[in-house]
Amino acid sequence: MNILLRAPNPIGDIVMATPALRALRRHFASDQITLLIRSYGREVLEGAPWFDEVIEIKGCRTREIFSALSLRKRLFDLGILFTNSFSTALFMRLSGTKRRVGYDRNGRGLLLTDRIKPLRQGRKFLPVPALDYYLGLIQYLGITIDDKRLELFVSQDASEKAEQVFQKFGIAPDNTVIVLNPGAAYGSAKLWPAEYFARLADLLARTGARIILSGSPAERPILDSIESQIKARAVNLAKENISISLVKAVVARASLLITNDTGPRHFAAAFDIPEVTIFGSSDPGWTENGHKKATHIWEEVDCRPCNLKKCPIDHKCMRRLKPERVFEAAQEALQRWALKK
Fold first, then answer.
1. What is the model's pTM?
2. CA-CA distance, 273 to 262, in Å (whole number)?
């Protein structure tokens, strides 16, 4: 069988799809599996042994249409859409894939041969962890799921680059290393204030921990702002040719990750690293990943979870959540998990 998969776009969703991708490879062990994915997503799944071919999706919508048409000669038997958009279903249809499996939403049902109904309450979608949402696609095909573990891999090159960073800043193997991830591509409503991250970094540094600031290149202004406010020494990965591969390698070596509710928080689950996630506008129900070493923390306010990208009022869900409370959660996580390694 010739199988075409369309990976999710958000980084966190790609990580949460790994149990489903792994199950597909195991079930279709002798079949050809091709993965369609954005270029940054390819870095997330770098080293994964589940695909025979990976095709990067590039360019504008028009270019994507031509790309889809160019796949028709490949004669794909089965296509599975981990995305929800109309455009990706159209791409799969134009590729000539015979059987097209996906969730029936955003008006794309006619483009699918197999339409899976998402859970709803009236017209509202019910919160379903993306992990289970993607596994639902696989279970629809009759595939048994016996392992829901998130899984990622670190390349030798990325591991060596992480080692170079650690050596450059004198981070020893026995140091407690805490990675702070203060960005969120979704929107500013998910951002805990930069000055709070700075205060938290100083509190953690007083315990002897080494602090690493991590984020995407687009989040460098946030990292630089935090670094400028920190009294203690911290490593700003934005100044070290940051990449997704490097972030994965650094998180895999960390003692603890403290993060907003954003994609890299799932790196911690994939590498079994303790994690404290700060929630603002978002509902944890959408992104629960089953990580046993995770601590979720939020402030109970009357307007959350609103799931908005930008707060229209005073962002009280984040501003009322003080650094001292997150520090306490971090200390508890370290005592329970990291210091027992």
1. 0.93
2. 16
Domain locations in the chain as residue ranges: 2-140, 157-340
In the CATH scheme, what architecture does the domain 2-140 have? 3-Layer(aba) Sandwich (3.40)
Could you tell me which CATH class the domain 157-340 is placed in?
Answer: alpha beta
Among 123, 67, 126, which Cα is nearest to 92's?
A: 67
Show the low-confidence residues of the chain (pLDDT under 70).
59-61, 121-122, 338-341
> From the CA atom positions of the chain, what is the Rg in Å?
21
Sheet containing 114-116: order of strands:
53-57, 32-38, 2-6, 78-81, 99-103, 114-116
Q: How far apart are CA 328 and CA 235, in angstroms?
A: 22
* Burial bucket for residue 41 (CB in 10 Å: 0-12, 13-18, 19+): buried
Distance CA 139, CA 101 (A): 12
User: What does the pLDDT read at residue 341?
Assistant: 47
Query: CA-CA-CA-CA torsion for 114, 119, 122, 126, nearest 10 degrees?
Result: -150
DSSP for residue 285: G
The whole-angstrom separation of Cα 297 and Cα 286 is 15
